[in-house]
Specification:
The chain is an alpha/beta fold and 355 residues long. It folds into two domains: 9-163 and 309-338, Response regulator (Rossmann fold, 3-Layer(aba) Sandwich); 166-307, Response regulator (Rossmann fold), CATH 3.40.50.2300. It contains 13 helices and twelve strands. The chain has helices spanning 2-43, 62-77, 94-106, 123-131, 145-154, 165-177, 181-184, 204-219, 236-249, 261-273, 291-298, 310-325, 346-353, and strands at residues 52-56, 85-89, 111-114, 136-139, 158-161, 191-198, 223-231, 255-258, 283-285, 305-307, 333-334, 339-341. The strands form three sheets. A six-stranded parallel sheet has the order 2-1-3-4-5-11, with helices on both faces. A four-stranded parallel sheet has the order 7-6-8-9, with helices on both faces. Helix 10 links the parallel strand 8 and strand 9. Helix 3 (94-106) packs parallel to helix 4 (123-131), helix 6 (165-177) runs parallel beside helix 8 and helix 11 (291-298) runs antiparallel to helix 13 (346-353). The protein is elongated, with a radius of gyration of 29 Å. The termini are far apart. The model is unreliable at 1-41 (pLDDT under 50). Bound molecules: beta-D-galactopyranose (GAL). Beta-D-galactopyranose is lined by residues 61, 63-64, 140-141, 199, 203, 205, 234, 260, 262, 287-288, 308. Beta-D-galactopyranose (GAL) binds at residues 61, 63-64, 140-141, 199, 203, 205, 234, 260, 262, 287-288, 308.
């Protein structure tokens, strides 16, 4: 009996040792695997598992629709999964946008891309992302200068991707100045009489495009006079109404500057409906290089536009997100150049964008 008990005791000890040994071995193996996964996570995250939350200020904005589609398709090409790219319409409401950002954070997104509804008031969004330690890339509607200083000083993973609106305004002004005063000045008074259709208030693109197109006329030695100025909210229909109103009072306007192309198309419709020959009697210029505008430029109804390169900007945005996920830094401002478009190069731009 004693021998039997001893045998059981030895067996139990052996089993215990084997089991313990196994456990230790497994734990070591497990630790090793965990270490390995950690290292991999630091250097090369699996992008197909990374969730990106995207807030677009308004889905119905033509230009942002092109941007959003390019962004999604490029993220997919980089290896993100469709179900992990979450894109929401802020419907031009700051409240809705804040709610979407909070929801994305609760859902555990790995990165945020925000096209702010109110670029003058993004503090809350920035703070939410920074507190949750989620990298944030703002796009297209540039937050106030103060914000960029905060990101810099805090050493936060927050950046902005966009173009310098002053450049687009300057190009618009030059396109008009290059036509020569003799081809613009219908009433021969030596002054360019113009209508200005602006985007939305409190937006850098609105402010600088409006200011710099006129500055470019002045720099080219042209005197100008503003006949009418109104907000078109970046929308074709609203701009059409504004321009229809304006040309009733000022049928002899010589130039219509529009802060974007959707509004330039609205201006074109209003002018045509009023029986004024666009291109001949009034020069219209926009920004973005929407397909319909490129065609109108080629047909001579519009003086030109400015290519707002959404392809590059969408790629820079996704690349910045990937850098952050790779634990790499980005500058706090990632810029992109505008390109002048006239009848000379509109066809090339049209063909390039078709691919
Ligand atoms: C501009 C663009 C406009 C409109 C606007 C929205 O960059 O030219 O068409 O999308 O952004 O803020």
């Amino acid at each position: 009996m004693k021998k039997f008990l001893l045998a059981i005791g030895v067996m139990s000890l052996l089993i215990a040792l084997v089991v313990t040994g196994c456990n230790v071995g497994d734990r070591e193996k497990q630790n090793f695997t965990e270490d390995k996964i950690d290292t991999e996570n630091v250097t090369e995250p699996d992008l197909s598992q990374m969730k990106v939350g995207v807030c677009i200020y308004r889905f119905s904005d033509n230009y942002m629709t092109l941007f959003r589609r390019e962004l999604e398709s490029y993220l997919l090409k980089q290896g993100f999964s469709k179900e992990n790219i979450l894109i929401l319409d802020s419907a031009d409401s700051e409240i809705v946008q804040d709610r979407h950002v909070r929801t994305f954070i609760e859902e555990g997104v790995n990165a945020l891309i925000v096209n702010p509804v109110d670029p003058t008031d993004v503090k809350t969004i920035t703070n939410l992302a920074v507190e949750a330690d989620i990298p944030l890339v703002y796009i297209n509607r540039e937050p106030d200068g103060d914000e960029e200083v905060r990101w810099e000083e805090g050493g936060w993973n927050v950046t902005y991707v966009g173009c310098d609106a002053r450049q687009s305004g300057t190009i618009q002004g030059k396109i008009i100045a290059d036509l020569g005063i003799e081809n613009i000045d219908k009433n021969n008074d030596g002054v360019v009489q113009y209508i200005m259709i602006e985007g939305d208030p409190g937006n850098a693109d609105t402010q600088f495009r409006t200011e710099y197109c006129i500055k470019a006329l002045t720099d080219a030695g042209l005197e100008s006079e503003c006949l009418f100025k109104g907000f078109g909210n970046w929308e074709r229909g609203v701009a059409e109404e504004r321009v229809a109103e304006a040309i009733q009072s000022f049928p002899n306007a010589e130039v219509i500057f529009c802060n974007n192309d959707a509004m330039a198309l609205g201006a074109l419709s209003a002018v045509e409906k009023a029986g004024i020959r666009a291109g001949k009697e009034v020069k219209i210029v926009g920004v973005d290089a929407l397909t319909d505008v490129l065609i109108a430029v080629l047909e001579g109804q519009m003086a030109g536009t400015v290519f707002n390169n959404y392809v590059d900007q969408a790629h820079f945005t996704a690349d910045a997100v990937i850098n952050y996920l790779n634990k790499e830094n980005n500058p706090h401002y990632i810029g992109c150049d505008y390109v002048a478009v006239t009848a000379d190069n509109a066809q090339t731009i049209l063909e390039n964008l078709a691919h």
